[in-house]
Amino acid sequence: MESINVLYLALRPEADNAVSSLTQAMGPNVHVTSDTAEARKLLNNGKFHVGLIQFEPFDENFLRRIVGDIFYYPEGSSLQWVALVSSLSMENEVVCRLIAEYFYDYHTLPFDIDRLKVTLGHASGMAGVRKKVFPRTSEWFNKSELIGSSPAMMRVVHSIDKVLSYDLPVLITGESGTGKELAALAIHNHSPRSDGPFVAVNCAALPSNLIQSELFGYEKGAFTGANQRKLGLIEKAGGGTLFLDEAGELPLDLQANLLRFLQQKTIYRVGGHEEIAVDVRIISATHVDLEEAVRKGRFREDLYYRLNVLRVAMPPLRERGYDIELLAEYFLNSFKKENACKARQFNRRALKVMRHYNWPGNVRELKNRVERALVMCDDTHIAPADLGLEEYSPQPLTLSLKAVKDQAEKDILYRVLAQAGDSVVAAAQILGVSHVTLYRLIKKHDIKLQK
């Protein structure tokens, strides 16, 4: 236990018996603070194995600072956290949801040092496993425009982390408004091609009679109005990345031309006869089910396999938990920097409604509603009506912490097995458990191995 370094965050540590008991038991391995900003700076040092947060006395503003200063950033969200909480606070929706979203485990007061040390030991072990599964996440994530620390978003970060160094086509899937272009930009900016151009084209927005000349360029005199040679977007992206947004909307005849380019790495300009070599990486994105489009003959199967070499799936906003609040605060603060407005923050009802709303338009809709609210709000606090959500009635919270812990266990099993290529031997070594234990967990969660 002496080797476990703990960051302890409490609202009033000087009046906290738990703090004195823990520091007496663990000595210099515990660093205590009440300042969330200081805690974030300490996390940057990377020396802590586990974080411990005291929820008593309950203070919602303190919890909001924890989310904004700690869980907003990968250094905080990747640490394994344990909550110290009373039975009474466990009946509070805010506390329960926060624990379900961000904590490895919780310790019910009154304080029991022996029981807590066991919990901290397990959390430290899980922290070691996560470092093996997510070895380099924070090195680039802080520099990107991607925001969030939910398990769903961490899966995206892990997927992007895997594809950064491989100069292969990437297909990004997800509903409209989930941030597919930001993911593509993150891949480009932190890849070996980062010094080259990033050229984005919305395939759905280009007229079908122009898309070929836009992508491949044209020679002078190729058609009426072609008074001079024009380079296409593929050539302009040379040495860098071409991002094909809404690639599922490409017409079939152009799909054949794109396939030829992917196979031979050369193009012909419209009206030209010279074969031109172009060095470019293709990242494509779609909200369309391309497998279904292939089955229905709307998308070429051979092109699908050329584009879908590496894959990143963007989650819908409704699956991202407290990321909704983080994103809302980010959009609010960004707008206030550029515009004068009366509103300063969201009231409690607005935050609750945003957490429960289904967000069919995803992050794009959230940004739209927040900016509209900042313009229309006549108060210092944004209410549901300002967001256009006054008629939405959230359903009662029905959280089971056992179900949440089971889901977290299932998620880590999927990640480790994927890393190990579905090898039970290798996965058991990573997790530090026996083959028998791992097979039992695989059976418990009904996980189907690929081999």
TrEMBL record:
Gene3D superfamilies: 1.10.8.60, Homeodomain-like, P-loop containing nucleotide triphosphate hydrolases. Keywords: ATP-binding, Nucleotide-binding, Transcription, Transcription regulation. InterPro entries: AAA+_ATPase, AAA_lid_NorR, CbxX/CfxQ, CheY-like_superfamily, Homeodomain-like_sf, P-loop_NTPase, Sigma_54_int, Sigma_54_int_dom_CS. The keyword ATP-binding applies. GO terms for molecular function: ATP binding. Residues 146-375 form the Sigma-54 factor interaction domain. PROSITE patterns: SIGMA54_INTERACT_3, SIGMA54_INTERACT_4. GO terms for biological process: regulation of DNA-templated transcription. The keyword Mitochondrion does not apply. PANTHER family: TRANSCRIPTIONAL REGULATOR-RELATED, TRANSCRIPTIONAL REGULATORY PROTEIN. This is Sigma-54 interaction domain family.
